[in-house]
Write a structure and sequence with these properties.
Layout (H helix, E strand, L loop, with lengths): L9 H7 L6 E7 L5 E7 H4 L5 E4 L24 E6 L5 E2 L7 E9 L10 H14 L2 E15 L27 H6 L1 H14 L3 E6 L5 E6 L4 H20 L3 E4 L15 E7 L16 H21 L21 E3 L6 E3 L9 E3 L8 H18 L22 H10 L1 H7 L1 H19 L4 H7 L4
Parallel strand pairs: 1-6, 12-13
Antiparallel strand pairs: 1-2, 3-4, 4-6, 5-6, 7-9, 7-10, 7-11, 8-9, 11-14, 13-14
Helix pairs in contact: 3-8, 5-6, 6-8, 7-8, 7-9, 8-10, 9-11, 10-11
């Protein structure tokens, strides 16, 4: 093998060991978490140390439009320099030919990290923790729906037909029979994950019709965000093999629960490796409470990162298994901030607010920045909620416009994430929101056309 293949992770080397490597996909995640980049012959990739993409990929909306650059500069689209992070190289097991995909670092022409790149935003956040002697650990839970093909956007999304010949039914959370209905898709997900060297902690049926939860093992925030980025693409490919779609929309089916990306998080001391949320006797530290307070104080300001689309807020409705509150509690799934049952070494806080439609880098950075500010400010949280917290549903923004206003006004968050990133993110999202407000919905035609 050539020199550059020696830099690959073992799973990638094993994948191409008995194959002729045909192609390498050079990827970066844009603000939406969509894979952007270039595909090139493996022979060319091996000779090329970097390639270029215009910085406008971070100003593009989900509809393909472009927001104005926040500094008011002319839209000249200067090139960025993309260099491969070989540690992220993994197989493309659904490809007809042997192919690898590699996430790239995004630098400007002076060699500095581009502030607008979501992966760089998360890297910077991890470095802020490191500067204090801390290392954050996260474990994402991915919820998504397997749905019937939907080639007409004017038609509602419906569950697919399972192996029994019937459409999948809801209200069977944790049912193994429900998982078996689309077992062929799950089998491909397992096979693809193995080829890519990813570890799946578990797969369960969730409460919605065709809704699945996939859990990942805990680890470094950037590595886990990379995995979620890869998993989203891979799961879509697995579903397409079986004539259905996988969707990560926050609320794809009316009347069914939404899909979340719950994020478990803890912090360890870099020098000692000790979980700073637990003391020597195994009890909770004040530091843990400071972290919770930071979440309560700053989560409203980062909802725009965790719920980035108008559809995201359809998940934030009462009585649909989405805790839309800032309460915290031990082993209480009605709270937005849950302390799971765990031994002292694994003491952690679960943020149940992010939607699965968020960019994984930005969803993780949103929860980490709140905890970081809490650790720095050392405030105390509200008392633990030991009852049903679903009724406390008035603390968070309920529209994208309101969320962006809070995001815009929070100086500590903007400083931690950099004004450059926050400004372009806000510009893109306000552009998307403006586009949505120009769309006339079926509800309006049905109820207003002849009645008002």
């Amino acid at each position: 093998m050539s020199d550059w293949t020696q830099k690959l992770p073992k799973a990638a080397r094993d994948y191409i060991a008995d194959r002729r490597l045909d192609e390498v996909e050079c990827l970066v995640a844009d603000l939406a978490g969509v894979a952007k980049g270039k595909a090139m012959p493996a022979s060319k990739f091996g000779k090329q140390k970097f390639f270029h993409l215009p910085n406008s990929i971070f100003a593009q909306t989900i509809t393909g439009d472009y927001a104005d650059m926040p500094d008011g500069s002319e839209f000249t689209e200067p090139d960025m320099v993309l260099t491969p992070d070989y540690s992220t190289a993994t197989a493309v097991p659904w490809s007809a030919d042997a192919a690898l995909q590699v996430i790239h670092d995004v630098l400007d022409q002076k060699g500095e990290p581009v502030a607008m790149a979501p992966r760089n935003v998360l890297k910077r956040m991890v470095q802020l923790y490191a500067d204090e002697g801390w290392k954050p650990i996260v474990a994402p839970e991915m919820e998504f729906y397997i749905v019937a093909r939907n080639v007409d956007a004017n038609q509602p999304i419906i569950p697919p037909v399972g192996r029994s010949g019937r459409r999948m039914m809801a209200n069977q959370a944790y049912s193994m029979s429900a998982v078996d209905e689309y077992g062929r898709v799950i089998d491909d997900i397992y096979d693809f994950a193995e080829a890519q060297g990813f570890e799946i902690d578990g797969i369960v049926q969730e409460g919605g019709a065709g809704q699945v939860e996939l859990n990942l093992s805990h680890g470094d925030p950037v590595n886990l965000a990379d995995e979620v980025f890869y998993f989203k693409r891979m799961i879509r490919e697995a579903a397409l093999r079986h004539d259905c779609y996988a969707t990560f929309m926050a609320k794809p089916i009316e009347g069914e629960p939404g899909s979340a990306m719950h994020i478990h998080q803890s912090v360890v001391d870099i020098k000692t490796g000790r979980n700073i949320f637990s003391d020597a006797k195994g009890g909770e530290t004040e530091t843990f409470l400071h972290f919770i307070a930071g979440m309560q104080n700053y989560l409203p300001a980062v909802v725009a990162l965790m719920a980035p689309y108008v559809n995201s807020y359809r998940r934030y409705v009462p009585d649909f298994a989405a805790p839309i509150n800032l309460e915290w509690g031990r082993d209480n799934r009605t709270t937005g901030l849950r302390v799971p049952i765990a031994d002292p070494k694994a003491r952690r806080l679960e943020n149940r607010l992010p939607g699965m439609d968020c960019n994984p880098y930005l969803g993780i950075v949103a929860t980490l920045v709140c905890g970081y500010l809490g650790l720095k400010e050392r405030k105390m949280p509200r008392p633990e909620n030991t009852g049903n917290a679903y009724i406390n549903a008035d603390e968070l923004p309920t529209t994208l416009g309101d969320a962006l206003d809070l995001f815009s006004d929070c100086a500590p968050v903007r400083e931690a994430l950099t004004p450059e990133f926050c400004s372009i993110y806000e510009a893109v999202k306000r552009n998307e929101y403006k586009e949505f407000l120009q769309v006339i919905s079926p509800w309006e035609r049905e109820h207003l056309l002849l009645n008002v």
